Request: fold
Amino acid sequence: MEIIPLACESLGTRSFSHLVITDDTKILFDPSVSLAPRRFRLNPHPLEIAASWISRKTILKAVSLSEIVIQTHYHADHFTLPEFRIYEFTNKNVFEETYSEEKIIYAKDPENNINYNQKRRAKYLWRNKKRKLFKAEGNIFQIGNTKIKFSEAVSHNIDERLGFVFETIVDDGKRKYLYTSDVSGPVSEKATDFILNEEPDILVLDGPTYYHPRVSKREKEIAFQNLNIIKDSIKKIYIDHHFLRKKNWKEKLEKEVGVKFPAFSQIIGLEPIILEAMRKELFKETEVQEEFYSLLEQGLINTDFFLKILKENKIANYWKKINEKIEKY
Ligand SMILES: [Fe+2]
Ligand SMILES: [Fe+2]
Reply:
């Protein structure tokens, strides 16, 4: 089994997109990428936008080789929307390519355990009856020796009005991999119990949303308590996504949990580059022309600009490495 992150906070964007490749099949998880439109009262920095651009290209490359797509919920950092979104490099064609009729798609139930906003977005996917779509929650699918098992719906946050996701197991008979998606810690007992009962060899989780000012102190406490329970029973844990939206994430982890879990990028040996959390610093370091955003909106920022800024910041080689890994298959 090979696990290849494609886009995530440790690769400079908001995403949790990755490939899991076994001898039997190629599975693409949550094929989307986004950026926080405002953080620290600032727009995304051009370097973040470049990271999003190259991440989208990389995800599309992964789309072309994957047989299965797993869609854990319908937030834009996981779900590609069929509309033009300036920081996400999407449009109707990108959407159709990502969720093409040839793929088998295991997706979040669009009717049950879902909030209004996500239900509306889910329709984009489910309204095309030619798609090979299956509701994931609670189901098990077998492809050769590879078993894909989905948890029941688990809460995204402590407040269930914010929606639900599911957790996924990929077991190829040699290794058992568990991806939590957005379980915010995990904060719910159900999401925690699923992890503890499954005892995966490798766990990739999003961690508590401690960066978020509107998440209550109680929610953060519960999430860290659960993380402390999990840490003792699983050997390999990678943390990313929500947890890496604040620059002190390593210190916070050490303080609350007493261990240093690697970030998801480190599963392929790449040191995390957190850009959103460093937005203020990025704007201080590099001057951004006032007209940049209007040029971007008009489609006048070209490929050369993105490649140049990635190279100048010495991170273009990150996607080179990821693309080389994908190209092997
Ligand atoms: Fe989410
Ligand atoms: Fe997310």
Notes: DSSP finds ten helices and 14 strands in the chain. Residues 46-65 form the longest helix (20 residues). The chain has a mean pLDDT of 97.
